[in-house]
Write a structure and sequence with these properties.
single chain; 49 residues; mainly alpha
């Protein structure tokens, strides 16, 4: 697995932490899940497979 730094606003970080805490998941797991759900729409647009 590759480690990639990302920049979040204070509000984004607050929401991410709240979601992760409530679901009992790591913040990284939440980010990867959001990535996995959203990337297919972009792959279709630019035909990345």
């Amino acid at each position: 697995m590759l480690r990639i730094p990302i920049y979040l606003t204070d509000e984004e970080q607050k929401v991410l932490k709240a979601i992760a805490d409530r679901l009992g998941l790591s913040q990284s797991e939440i980010i990867r899940g959001a990535f996995d759900r959203n990337i297919p729409q972009y792959q279709k647009k630019i035909r990345l497979d």
